[in-house]
Amino acid sequence: MAVAAATPTQPSPARGGGLPALLALPILALTLGHVFSNAVRTIPAVAADVLTRGLGITDEGLAAITGAFPAAFAVVMLPVGVALDRYGVRRTALGLLSVGTLGALIAALAQGPLTMLLGQVVLGIGCSGALMCPTTLAARSMDARRFALWSGLILALGNMGMLLSASPLALLIEWQGWRAGFLAAAAMAGFAVLAVALTVPRDAPDRAARAAAPLAQDIARIWHIATSPALRPLLVFGFASLAAMLGLRGLWGGPWLMEVKGLDRVEAGNILLLCTVALVAGPAIAGWVHRAVGRTPALLAGSHFVAAALIGLILAGGPGAPLSRLLGLAMLPASWDAAMLVLFGLIISFQVLCFSMVRAAVPPEQAGRALSAHNITFFAGAAILQAVSGLAAGGAGGGAGGGGGGGVAAAILTFPVALILCTTGFLWLRRRAV
User: Is 14 in a helix, a strand, or coil?
Assistant: First the structure.
């Protein structure tokens, strides 16, 4: 397989003991790209109203445009996986982060829906290696036990990007407008480029393997890995997992809190900030629970079913919704939504356990390809389900009118349904594979 061999400029695998700074610093620098990716793709959650007015589009139109981000992300994941194995992490990361910086600038300067669509596509391409680059370097450099710990740390640190797109960017957008949010994200990406250039070691490509294996053959190998019995259940599971997190935290959570619950931008941003803190803490909690009880498939499936129930409880507290009527209220207070969103952030974070299962299913030299296959379904699911949520919002009349929150509620309902269906498929495929 095409994978760069360890050289004096590359950290060797860590076996036992603490992780050396020679390896920790490059992983942390690469994780800055994941911070940028999470920040820029969740800006619409606190800027949906001004984005729709500024671009002259509807809520469902914004869902379709921003859905181009995960769609482009998923489309380029195959070549990104090949590039990581052929050309190394450093060059792949630097190239993609530069593209991401350009995408944020295009979005900041957008004058209409088509320009914003272009910006989202370029951003999706540029962010496609944001999680893959640090996790691939970690997977190649450490044993499975230590990788499970560091994959959780990478995801938790990357989720801090959503901290920035909650209250801080809400305040910036309230003060300077939505363009300032994308400009701040561009500056963040530029800083990540500098950090990677300074800390990530150069890695020579395996030219012999590159010459021996055509690109089409490398892509076919990813497809072969993706369709293997060991990975199929995880790919079905992942189709709804990231989609639910991004759909609720990254797009529809803001409109629900502002349009349905009547909060202003900063108040909504503060609640989304609490959810994001839970998303940052969640992977560490998932790792602790996993070490205590094991049973990874049961934890994954249970987390999805509980996350679906929590989304249902949010919707049930909307105006005229069942729980509100049961309690004799017009709708439950925003504190209810805050509590459910925090619990949702903690529970959906158990998705991090997928990475250690993927890593354990393949040899180290196939790590880049296997993680690529997994991330394709993560982001393809996000793109498809986000588009479906936009259609659901439009079919329900859009906006917040109607019992339970109208179009926004219909859009959000897409995600618990998907979580239940995909988790059922995950369990069924695992049972067949046994």
Answer: strand
What pLDDT is recorded for position 20?
54
Q: Considering the domain boundaries, does residue 207 fall inside one?
A: no
pLDDT of residue 241: 92
pLDDT at residue 214 in the model: 64
Under-50 pLDDT residues of the chain: 1-18, 207-209, 211-212, 400-403
Count of residues in the chain = 434
Tokens 């969103």, residue located: 341
Task: Give the structural domain span for 159.
Answer: 21-200+221-433
Q: State the pTM of this model.
A: 0.74
The span from the CA of 376 to the CA of 225, in Å, is: 13
- Asked if 337 contacts 256 with a C-beta cutoff of 8 angstroms, the reply is yes
Residues 6+ apart with CB under 8 A from 84: 92, 129, 132, 133, 136, 368, 372
Q: Are 132 and 158 in contact (CB under 8 A)?
A: no
Domain contains 6: no
Helical H runs in 330-366? 334-348, 353-361
Q: What confidence score (pLDDT) does residue 208 get?
A: 42
Q: State the pLDDT at residue 315.
A: 95
Place of tokens 């094991």: 294
Kindly tell me the sign of the dihedral angle through the C-alpha atoms of 84, 88, 90, 94. negative
**Beta-bridge mates of residue 142:** 14
Output the furthest CA–CA distance in the chain (Å, rounded): 72
- The pLDDT of residue 1 is 31
CA distances from 116 to 45, 369, 374 (A): 16, 31, 28
- Tell me if 1 is assigned to some domain: no
pLDDT value at residue 152: 75
3-state helix, strand, coil in the chain (%, to 5): 80, 0, 20
Would you list the DSSP string of 183-235? HHHHHHHHHHHHHHHHHSPP----HHHHHHS-HHHHHHHHHHHHTSTTTHHHH
Tens digits of residue pLDDT in 120-157: 999 999 998 888 899 888 877 777 667 777 777 887 78
CATH code: domain of residue 181: 1.20.1250.20
In a domain, 15, yes or no: no
What is the count of structural domains for the chain?
1
Phi, psi of 12 (to 5 degrees): -85, 160
